[in-house]
Structure formats: C-alpha cells, structure tokens
Amino acid sequence: MVKRNVDLRSDTVTKPTEAMRAAMAIAEVDDDVLGNDPLALKLETEMAKLMGKEAALFVPSGTMGNLISVLVHCDIRGSEVILGDNSHIHVYENGGIATIGGVHSRTVKNKDDGTMDIDLIEAAIRNPKGELFFPTTRLICLENTHANSGGKCLHVEYIDKVGELAKKHDLKLHIDGARIFNASIALGVSVDRLVQATDSVSVCLSKGLGAPVGSVIVGSKSFIAKAKRVRKTLGGGMRQIGILCAAALVAIKDNVPKLATDHQNAKLLASELNQINGLKVDPKSVETNIIFLEIEQDSKISAESLCKNLEEHGILLMQESSSRIRMVVHHQISASDVNYTINCIKQFVCGYPLQSGY
Ligand SMILES: Cc1ncc(COP(=O)(O)O)c(C=O)c1O
Ligand SMILES: C[C@@H](O)[C@H](N)C(=O)O
Q: What residue ranges carry the coiled-coil annotation (predicted)?
C-alpha cells in the first residue's frame, strides 16, 4: 500500500490551492491601514453582503476577530460577557478578553448540541439593581458551529430566541462563526438568515473555506468603525493585505460549494470508524466536518498509540486525551483518503492485513 499524507488535525491545515496562489501573484494591492487596498475593500464588501450586515473588516485571525468584537461591545470596564463554558473564546483564546480587555466572563454550561440553556442564559444576566456588587452584563456570545461539541449546528430558531433575549435586556449578541458556512450548508439556511439576530459575527476564512490566512468580522457601520480602531490598537492593521484577500475571495467562490462534500466525508469516516471494535463514534452526532473518536476502556490500544501508528502511515490526528481523538475533514481530504485512513486503523486495531489499491 502506498503511503499518503492525510492531515485530519484541523481544517486550519489546508494549503492554498493553485487558483489561490495565482490570484495572490497578480493581486492589486495598496495600503489597507490607509483604507486603500482594493481587494480588502472588495472582500469586505462581499462578506458584508453575504452575511447581511452593513459592514465588514478583515482581521488576521479568528482569535483576534472574537477579541475585537468583545472589546467593542464591552468597551466599559466592569463589563461582563455570557458565554459557553466549552466555547473557543473561553477555552482556547488565552483569556484575552480578560487579560487584554478587562472583560469578565460569566460561563453557562454548553449542552451536547453546542447551545446554552436559554433560561440559564437569562438567569446569568446581572440585575442592574446589584451594581454595587455585580459586573454589568453587556454581551452574549454563541459559537456556530460549536467546535468542542463536535461541529454541532446552532439552529436559526435558537439564535433568534437568544437574540430576542439580548434585546429584552438591552444586550448585544456576538457569534463566533469560525465555521458559520459549515452550519449554513448543513442546515440549508443562508448565512445571512442564520446571523440575522446578531450584532456581530467573526467568520474564519482560514478554516473550512481553505484560505491561507484571516477572518472577517461583520456588523453595523458604527461597530466596524470602532472595530477598526481596536484592530489597529492590537497591531492587526496590516498593509498590502490584498495578497491575502485575493486568496480569500477565491476560497469563498470555490470552497463554500465543497463544504457539503466535507460533511459527507466526515459522516463516511464516522460510520466506518463506528464499525471497528474498541472504537466509539456516534455517526448521528456528526453534523458537519468534526469527529470525536473515543477509544473504549477495555481496548488494547490508546489514543496515543493509535495516533503514533497512523502518523507512520502519513495520517495526522489531534489527540485530545488518553482516550479521545479529534478528526477534522476539509476540502483537501478525499473519500479515498477516508478509506485509506479506515484501512490503516483497521490494520492497527484489528490486525486486518492492509488492503492494496490505495
Ligand atoms: C470555533 C473557533 N473559533 C475561533 C477560532 C480561532 O481562529 P484562529 O485559529 O484563526 O485564531 C477557532 C480555531 O482556530 C475555532 O475553532
Ligand atoms: C484548536 C483550535 O484553536 C482550532 N480552532 C482548531 O479547531 O483546530
């Protein structure tokens, strides 16, 4: 069997396509801090329209997109944000909203479907009468799809309800939409309708969309004007970013249509994995491109030994714990790569002979 490279660590690992590189090579550029980079303006205009918001801003990363959004909404010291205890902002962004923004986090438990119970969100909102003791709640953050729940989609009805709750209490609503296009395709709901109730969204260009770098935040003109200042303060104002925006424009055109295939390949991988003794995956729980695989307790293998063995076959996975592995499918993973991966796993876990033909 011919060894091949199959990188399932994340959808952040994709390499620019030839079409992206060609667009980058001929990109017309200017100084974006001075507001003149033509492809940045084109990308921001296109993304604002796609997301149904007044304006957009290119930022270097999804982490910075979330940080800027929270800092704009919570621009008064002593502000508090309600967010999921298993959300990316709370778990993987170095507590930046606190360490840099002085914003206090009030977590609500994320349910298995990535949502937070709406009654618990409302209960977490501080009573203004207690202002002598309490921070002031100013923002609710959701995440769609929800990565740590396995790429679960938050439905538009739920987002609308949280939006109504935010309005009722004069709060803002932000969505970490790193994979919002995955949610849109999986749910069959347009992105602009999915985020209609929000005040801001951070959209990753460099995940499922496959661009090499960047995210875009969208919101009102006033929100984006403030966001541009915070971006500059954080050192995120860059110069000839048309080179990056050129690739992003290709990514949006070429790769949004491929997300459905990513989801199919993830479901194929999950259903095949689930048939292997000692491994546990719930194929029904795979809604988009992320799979969490559990190694059963009495299994003779561990997550570490499986990852190590597969690495020898060119397959890269993300080990989450001694018994848990994450696999993320993207547009540079084919059905044949999935079958190759399954073949290698079967050989290691069950001792099946490696089938040729891959
Ligand atoms: C849900 C989610 N939000 C935000 C981010 C941050 O994006 P970046 O890695 O570009 O900072 C990631 C992962 O990278 C993510 O999975
Ligand atoms: C690990 C995390 O930061 C990244 N967003 C990923 O999903 O790979």
A: none
